[in-house]
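Weekly structure sync, notes
Attendees: PL (lead), two postdocs, one rotation student
Agenda item 3: pending single-chain targets
PL asked that the sequence for the first pending target be pasted directly into the notes so everyone works from the same version. It is reproduced below exactly as submitted, 294 residues in total.
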Amino acid sequence: MGAALALGVQPGDVVVSLGTSGTAYAGSLLPTSDPSGFVAGFADATGKFLPLVCTLNAARILSATAEMLNVDFNEFARLALSAQPGAGGLTFIPYLDGERTPNLPDARGSLHGLTRENMTAENLARSAIEGMFGGLVEAVQALEAVGVVAQRVILIGGAAANSAVATVAATMFNVPIHVPPEGEYVADGAAVQAAWALSGEVEPPSVDVHECRRNPLSGSRCRAGNPGALPVDPIRSVRLTCALNSLNQFGNANGLPRLWYPGVFSTNSATELLEHDVVWINGREFLADSVDIQ
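Predicted structure, written out during the meeting:
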């Protein structure tokens, strides 16, 4: 719920989070019901709905496979990207710790389709990522079965930072893949909710971290002037630290709690924003302690 608030999840967005476990969840204006038990119904932090599917196995599939291959994550990514989609017919069933969705607590992982030709480190690395996403593709399909309309997948979590993960995801989901800047989105969401409560506003702060995103095919970040980046809107995406309290209300924000606030702000240049320590968010002044132009 906190991450969804920090990400500004809207209907059409499906978040796939790759942590110790994997989750797929979506913003919805209507409650959902799933007799199969795959989809759990939650409320989000803004009074709307957050249907969610949770799998037991996610990032640990990759760490366990990298450890078996005796490589670090950079080499693991290189190996995976060296293999073709489908890993030469090698299929990794990743139920290494059993599975909760589907409910198979006693299941174990397995490799299928082994031949002398496809028994390579490259194919094993690729099949581990594809196996991880296999369950999460089914999770997104389960969300769609209860009425979610998926228009893009937002990929977050520790494993999303691996350069091979977004590339493989782009071959497995049928919608665009967006990788926002790395961040602690659950904590960010809690901070945004605290700022919202303090402000007394009816609507939550507007949050958009999607203008800065990674190109899944090149791994590049969309910093200004990066020719490998995806096209971005002329409005800059900025990540800044600002006070929770508005200057209009308190006058001096020194010593007050700080909030990482990802947002999009109108500005002519990076220099213009950096020269001013006061920014406007939803019509209110905030003191910016630091600014990172994305």
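Discussion points:
- Residues 201-293 form one domain.
- The first helix runs from residue 2 to 7.
Action: rotation student to compare against the earlier draft before next sync.
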